[in-house]
Amino acid sequence: MDIKVRGPHPTEAERLAVDAVLGQAVSAWAGGKRDLGREGRISLLGGSEARAERHLLLPALHAVQDRFGWLPPGAIAYICQRLTIPPAEAHGVATFYHLFTHQSGAPIHVHVCDDIACRHTGGLDLLAQLKQQHTGSKVVEIHSSPCLGLCERAPAALVLRSGKIPQGCAVGHATSDTVAAALPADTFPDAGMDWLLATVPQQGQPGADLALLTRVGRGDPASLADYQATAGYAGLRASIALGGEKTIAEVTTSGIVGRGGAAFPTGRKWDAVARATDPVRYVVCNADESEPGTFKDRLLMEGDPFALVEGMTIAGVAVGARQGFLYIRGEYPLAIRRMQGAIDQAVAAHLLGDNILGSGHDFHITIRRGAGAYICGEETALFNSIEGQRGEPRNKPPFPVLHGLFNQPTVINNVETLANIPLILRQGGAVSAALGTPGSKGRKLFCVSGHVARPGVYEFVFGITLRQLISQAGGVPGNRPIQAVLLGGAAGGFVGPAQLDVPLTLEGTRAIGASLGSGVVMVFDDSADLGDTLARIAAFFRDESCGQCVPCRVGVTRQEELVGRLRHGQTIGSPADELALLEEIGQVMRDASICGLGHTASSALQSALRLFGPGILAEKHA
Amino acid sequence: MNEPEMWYKAPPRPTLIPLPPVRATKPQVELTVDGQTVRVPEGATLLDACMERGIDTPTVCFHPNYTPVNVCRVCVVELEGARTLVPSCSRLAEPGMVVKTDSPRVKTSRKMVLEFLASSVDLSTAPELLARCQEYGARPERYGPPAPPATDRDSRAAGHHHEPAGNEAQRVAQPVKIDNGLYIRDYSKCVLCYKCVQACGDEAQNTFAIAVAGRGFDARISTENAVSLPDSACVYCGNCIGVCPTGALMFKSEHTLRAQGTWDETRQKQTDTICGYCGVGCTLTLHVQDNTIVKVTSPADQDITRGNLCVKGRFGHESIQNRGDEPELPA
After folding, report:
1. Can you tell me the mean pLDDT for A483-488?
2. pLDDT tens digits along A564-576
3. Dist CA A580 CA A301 (whole Å)
4. Which tens digit of pLDDT belongs to each residue from B263-291?
5. Residue A41: is its pLDDT beyond 60?
């Protein structure tokens, strides 16, 4: 490929930042200070060799953003040369993610959540306050952000400090003071153990039956010894003793289905990959948890990282994969640190890497960091993102079990699904299968937030009703009546006070036309402005659509405009016309979009309109 | 007078002309389209099956020579057993499939997709698409009056945007990009079908001067950092113009004549000839209006070019009509 790189030459610092990821340039021209102008702008590696490294594009862009707080064109041009990537494509990838900055600016970026959980708990005020405080600042830049996955500690902010040692931290219960305190280097307000405990309100409560969350908040998440002392790695040992086929049989027996929202049987997925004729396979863990209101995966990674490593290792060994990728959203700096620490310790203890526990199996895990794109939680978009392409979903079929990452057979599972695996192998699939209801087996994590006394992640055996869950979370503060509950996040739907006795199972929620999704339970009391929440959801999809297919790209835009018209009472034609149009927009997105984002982009809005009628959208004037 | 003796005698014509080798016939797939049985070779798409039956299927992003990107979603059909509609351009035919191409769901989706395009994109130079809009009853005016053109589309960041009031329909409208003497880019007319990116990339030219940048409604075709074409990797082969379905990419000569109001396809004559620049022998179709070449294309089904040309064949025709009397094209 004869690519033409015409960007400015990289500075020494830019070159070093990129080399930190790609290694020093190895070629006949390498060594000593290079004079690219004299040598001609040619790739430094051989073409096909360099192109095989395309998956390093996103890590390289991250390295540059982390070092300078933005993406200088010289650094991008250098990355393009190193990896033989056409600059236009690199530009296309870099502009796809909202954590990348394209203009020289401040070294510290603060992302303040203004999404559905945070906007009514002070997020909007905080955003305005910080924006005003840092107007014209050359040090701090304030951005509004979609859900940061800290809904139990709303409002939330994320501080990303660039520099020679880049750092990131999340600020829960953020105020302008706590954000200011998190600006200096080496401050990590998110790293303490006490809030881990606070996020699992059931921890230590009498009668609480915790299996997935049992270690969270109790053991040191950075200690392999603590993990092993609490039955850690018993699952992997059992799995190695059983062998791949029987391991998959146990998983199938357990009846576990994907916990990311799609509820596909995990055992069937693994089985299909294990049976694939192609020997090169991958295991990918989808930790791009971006669904507004979801924070269970973050908690698992921050509070019990070894369980995920163990689950991925079991998957890798069982399906015969040698390489795993853990794709964590860029908004989770602590989870990334904890997971990297766990992976390093597991490798040192021969629980990961070559010849795991002397079994002859090899399995490696590489962490990939997202850069701010909800769509990358869609499995095929995630593959494209890892591969260094734009995070646009692929058309299915073909399915990932045969044509997944790098077009190879791939197991892709959610964090919670994989965290269940060690448990299933330790206890046997039948134990897990005996729990729950016939249609929903095992345990489920629920992300409870909004107007409840004790927001957090709750673990229950399938079968609990919504009313019971809310009462476990302490009910609505001040005993105010519940106006609505959002199940499944922005891609889910609202249920009303009359539907609180719905069992939170796959079949139970389906029966009332709702969906369990990723386990979001966001409670809105009668004081909440649901119209504003709906407008935010419409804006969220407009922000996060990848723009690839027409129904979604234009549909989410038209939907947001229509919500705006209904909110401001400026309808085109009668309100009934507008509602009919909204229905049609929803239908084409559901029927003709490529991926789940488009399919569900209207579901929350439609459910609320069905429950409350169009009046719910009208602007409230307090 | 005796004729001089022939010093060379051609060999007699062979009487046995070898037949071409027998091609292995592909196994056939039998499926049902609109209640009728269709047989297509294995590997054929549902669109092929529709064509086989003579069912007229609208497409925008489909190009017969390229790998389907299935992004426009206007060719969707209803497949029994599938939760959503499926794009016929890329979905392979399987035995026993039951496909409906005229169900209410299909019609609604097609109408809405066309309506979405017509309400956000200037289709004035895409007569086929406008005809489809009419055929499916698209009413783009339902979304309100068009919003004014934007000048910042090339620099819009992914993520948060300014929330619209909703009283006007946002469009991709923006100023025309005229940065070279050969062709213009009017992205107000861009439906984002990806065909130009494919043509510039590994489907044809392997130059990779353009790619899709940005996200969502702000997604756009862009060079690196949105630099002008002369500063990009563009080699001016014009293959992107050849595949553009809406006239967003256009010969500068055509753009100029259209601006003057003198572009008139009824007065144009198309003449096929062979490019004389090198030995490849590309077929050129010269579009001539008033004895002046106004555009050069190549047939997409031509064996040698597959519709592609290089800068010389596409644009290098000034010399053959250098009569000294043609109107000066404004720079």
Report:
1. 96
2. 999 998 999 899 9
3. 44
4. 999 999 999 999 999 999 999 999 999 98
5. no
Query: What's the rounded mean pLDDT across residues A80-97?
Result: 94
Size of interface A-B (CB pairs under 8 A): 218
> CB–CB of B213 and A555 under 8 A?
no
Check residue A119 and report its DSSP letter: I
B14 belongs to a structural domain: no
Give residue B327's pLDDT: 60
CATH 1.10.1240.10, domain A530-617, yes or no = no
Q: Tell me what the pLDDT averaged over chain B comes to.
A: 93
Q: Residue A112's beta-bridge partner residues?
A: A144, A157
Kindly state whether residues B61 and B189 are assigned to the same domain. Answer: no
Task: Check: CB of residue A271 under 8 Å from CB of residue A307.
Answer: no
pLDDT at A32 over 60: no
CATH code of the domain covering residue B261: 2.20.25.90
* Whether residue A398 has a cis bond before it, omega within 30° of 0: yes
pLDDT digits (tens, 9 = 90+) for B60-112: 999 999 999 999 999 999 999 999 999 999 999 999 999 999 999 999 999 99
Residues in A closer than 8 angstroms to B232, CB to CB, are 6, 88
The answer as to whether B328 is a domain residue is: no
List chain B residues with CB under 8 Å of A568.
Answer: 165-167
**Quick one: pLDDT band at residue A29, thresholds 50, 70, 90?**
very low
User: ipTM higher than 0.90?
Assistant: yes
Whether residue B204 sits in one domain with residue B303: yes
Last residue of a domain, one of B122, B146, B170: B146
Across residues A3-13, what is the average pLDDT?
Answer: 85
Q: Verify whether the Cβ–Cβ distance B85 to A591 is below 8 Å.
A: yes
Rg (C-alpha) for chain B, rounded Å, is 24
- Sheet of B98-100: strands edge to edge? B36-41, B28-33, B98-100, B76-79, B86-87
- Disruptive mutation site among A591, A593, A617 for chain B (greatest number of B CBs within 10 Å): A591
Q: Which of A145, A392, A399, A557 to mutate to test the interface with B (most CBs of B within 10 A)?
A: A557
Cis status of the peptide bond prior to A397, with omega within 30 of 0? yes
B219 reaches A (C-beta below 8 A):
yes
Residues in chain B with CB shorter than 8 Å from the CB of A618 are none
Q: Checking DSSP bridges between strand B98-100 and strand B28-33, what pairing results, if any?
A: parallel
Of B85, B116, B211, the CB nearest to A550: B116
- The CATH topology of domain A108-190 is Glutaredoxin (3.40.30)
Range of the domain at B317: 183-321
DSSP element (H, E) containing A301 = helix A296-303
Total number of domains in chain B: 2
A87 pLDDT tier (thresholds 50, 70, 90): very high
By C-alpha distance, the chain A residue nearest B234 is A4
Fold topology of A443-525: Ubiquitin-like (UB roll) (3.10.20)
Contacts of A561 in chain B (CB under 8 A): 143-144, 164, 166, 169-170
- State which residue of chain B sits closest to A397, comparing Cα positions: B91
Same domain, B200 and B268: yes
Q: Which residues of A touch B164 (CB under 8 A)?
A: 560-561, 564
Dump pLDDT digits (tens) for A431-467: 999 999 999 999 999 999 999 999 999 999 999 999 9
Q: Provide CATH code, domain A224-433.
A: 3.40.50.11540
Q: Residue A325, exposed/middle/buried by CB under 10 A (0-12, 13-18, 19+)?
A: buried
Say yes or no for a CB contact (<8 Å) between A572 and B72: no
What single string gives the DSSP state of each residue in A183-241? SSTT--TT--SHHHHHH-TTTT-TT---SSSTTTTTS-TT-HHHHHHTTTTHHHHHHHH
Same-domain pairing of B136 and B189 = no
Read off the pLDDT of residues A248-305 as tens digits, 9 standing for 90 and up.
999 999 999 999 989 999 999 999 999 999 999 999 999 999 999 999 999 999 999 9
Tell me, what CATH number does B42's domain have? 3.10.20.740
End-to-end CA distance of chain A: 62
